[in-house]
Amino acid sequence: MDVAAHLAARAAEVEAALDRLLPPGETSPPQLHQAMRYSLEAGGKRLRPALVLDACACAGGDPDTALPTACALECIHTYSLIHDDLPCMDDDDLRRGRPSCHKQFDEATALLAGDALLTLAFGLVAGNLGEDGVTAGQVVRVTAEVAEAAGTPGMVGGQMLDLLGEGQPPTAELVEAIHLRKTTALLRAAVRCGAILGGAGDAEFEALSAYGRNLGLAFQIVDDILDIVGDEAALGKPVGSDVGLAKATWPAVHGLDESRRYAHALIAEAQRSLDGFGAEAEPLRALAAFVEERQS
Ligand code: GRG
Description:
With 296 residues, the chain is an all-alpha fold.
């Protein structure tokens, strides 16, 4: 399967849906809505929404019915990038190849655009009830998944650990805890939400969940590796920022070679979780391979 073409097709679906679901840029106050759209429309791989849609299809559902939730995951991811770039966090001027939100607008607008995207995301998840065949029970389960992954047990808690760990000698336990919460939680939730909306049975749900966990952890380890050996133009953001901030990263604890080996082992494990599925899991298999090989 041509994974680049597949991701591009998923991105086009998601971007069209986001354009429909977001308030128009001229809605009062325009600066806020333009900042939300500026960061969302800056591109990105759209990996989280693709995982929602592909996990839904893998579980036997119609991916179109999961589009609002797919958009919600992208809104949460984009909010985390906007806030992460603020001077009080990682202080990055460049994101997705463009000035970061607070550079293009200002800090207060960036803070509020992030808040608004997070809040909108839960509205989109609730709005998923309007889609063909989606039940209130599924929407409640998806809401709980998203809240846990984005909140203190997941991304926000992981970000706090990450900030507290800056400048400290990193340990294997700390770096794993940060990665599982800061990045893995949302990627795993994307897969689990798609599985729920696709009507996965218990065994399918567990298999997809394991896939999401291993893919998510590998994703962050590869991100750490790219921060050392990646190409700034391809990444659309500066490299070397983790080292500059003395961050707890996988290579800082385990070295580059071991990090590459472990990312490969995690992807192999993620692929094994899909063994019980047939052709319907092809996009997820291709996405797992992509996560290991990506250069951006
Ligand atoms: C501020 C609440 C809060 C959380 C921040 C996820 C996160 C926590 C910060 C993002 C910064 C960062 C570099 C995280 C590491 C991995 C990661 C999520 C990279 C960006 O994701 P991609 O590569 O980005 O999927 P695109 O632009 O392709 O969507």
